[in-house]
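Protocol step 4 of 6.
Sequence for Acyl-CoA carboxylase subunit epsilon (Microbacterium mangrovi) entered exactly as in the expression construct, tag removed. Do not edit the line below.
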Amino acid sequence: MTLADDSDTDAAPLRVEVLRGNPTDEELGALLAVVSTAYAEEAADALADDDRRPSAWSLSQRGLRRPFARERGWNNFPD
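Step 5 output, structure tokens:
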């Protein structure tokens, strides 16, 4: 037995194949309703948060150092 769901015209038709037994149309409708709702909830929960927090890597990174002042010579620290 195969069912086609025409509620979403953009999506590919849904195919349900019953391997054992002989379910009624109401049972298949209930199954599709439960599975569709569970899938929609799972997809809604799988979205990433909009508030991006800095990662531990970016929090621990150090700033860049100034380039060497080669004109100062050896061991000539600034005053």
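Step 6, annotate. DSSP finds two helices and no strands in the chain.
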